[in-house]
Specification:
- The complex is a heterodimer of chains A (188) and B (104).
- Chain A has 188 residues and is mainly alpha-helical.
- Helices cover 73% and strands 0% of the residues of chain A.
- Chain A contains seven helices and no strands.
- In chain A, helix 2 packs antiparallel against helix 3.
- The N and C termini of chain A lie far apart (86 Å).
- With 104 residues, chain B is mainly α.
- Chain B is built from three helices and no strands.
- Chain B is elongated.
- The model of chain B has no long low-confidence stretch (mean pLDDT 90).
- Classes of the chains: A mainly alpha (188), B mainly alpha (104).
- Chains A and B meet through helix 1, helix 2, helix 3, helix 4 and helix 5 of A and helix 1, helix 2 and helix 3 of B.
Chain lengths: 188, 104
């Protein structure tokens, strides 16, 4: 029974923070609520005996992706909508209705399926030693491909976010104007 | 573990719907990305739940899939946020409904 109560508490926590992340006005609040929702999911993984995945979720989502989102919010700071402006699209009610329909379709399918009401078999566990062995033997090729993918994504993100040389650069022109007289002074 | 499998699936469906609603109804590109991440996480929760409640949990397939899925989600978030920053620098906006140059 305590496991059940813990599940419902964590589920409530996760859903509440996910809903807050999607509805709050300020982008920074949304990013922090999303981090809390990711942490709640990590707790659910721990409760499901998947310790390694839970800690990986904490490290990657709460540690890395939340920080990335906060940095993106800071770098697009001037985009903060004025208080009177709309934050959602004009037809947001229809879009939320579609989301509710999706939820209803999935919930009906889940609740009507007799095979999904089973309880867990005891003693299932994913020890880190087994995961490491599997990663180094059976899943060695996917692991290498993920390494290549992450390298490519890192380089791609840097190239995309780098300042384009062809676009007009107002601040640097100002700098070059300032530096020209100095060079003249030096040459004289 | 007295919680039935369907409760985890319902939680996952709820998170997916919340992420979907945010991704389609909000205007800020960053919120759209957070919504997509929530939807990915809901799918991951399904993988872990089915692994734990499955008949062969010792095969570790669900755990492995989620580990790779987390790595790919990290790559996707990095590239997506870099795109948002690049678009903001060019257009001075990250509101998705103002990026309509290709509109007919």
């Amino acid at each position: 029974m305590p496991g059940e109560i813990a599940f419902y508490l964590i589920a409530l926590f996760t859903v509440a923070f996910a809903a807050a992340a999607m509805t709050l006005r300020r982008l920074v609040h949304c990013a922090l609520c999303a981090a809390a929702a990711f942490a709640g999911l990590a707790m659910i993984y721990l409760q499901l005996d998947a310790e390694f995945v839970g800690f990986a979720q904490l490290l990657v989502y709460v540690g890395a992706i939340a920080i990335l989102i906060v940095f993106a919010v800071l770098l697009t700071r001037g985009d903060e909508v004025a208080p009177g402006n709309k934050q959602s699209s004009p037809s947001w009610m229809a879009e939320v209705a579609v989301a509710v329909l999706v939820l209803a379709a999935m919930a009906i399918a889940i609740l009507r399926s007799p095979s999904l009401h089973r309880l867990a078999s005891p003693g299932a566990a994913a020890p880190v030693k087994r995961i490491g062995e599997e990663l180094m033997t059976r899943y060695i090729l996917p692991l290498e491909m993920v390494g290549v993918l992450l390298t490519g994504a890192l380089l791609g993100a840097v190239v995309i976010a780098m300042r384009d040389e062809s676009e007009p650069k107002q601040p640097e022109r100002v700098v070059s104007h300032l530096s020209d007289p100095k060079e003249e002074v030096v040459s004289r | 573990m007295s919680t039935p499998l369907s409760h985890y699936l319902i939680l996952s469906a709820l998170l997916f719907s919340i992420g979907f609603a945010g991704a389609v109804a909000r205007r800020s590109a960053i919120i759209v990305l957070i919504g997509i991440e929530l939807m990915l996480n809901a799918a991951n929760l399904n993988f872990i739940a089915f692994w734990r409640y499955g008949t062969h949990p010792e095969a570790l397939t669900g755990v492995m899939f989620v580990l790779f899925s987390i790595a790919i989600a990290a790559a996707e978030a990095a590239v997506g946020l870099a795109l948002v920053i690049a678009i903001y620098r060019q257009r001075k906006t990250a509101q998705v409904d103002r990026l309509d140059s290709l509109r007919g």
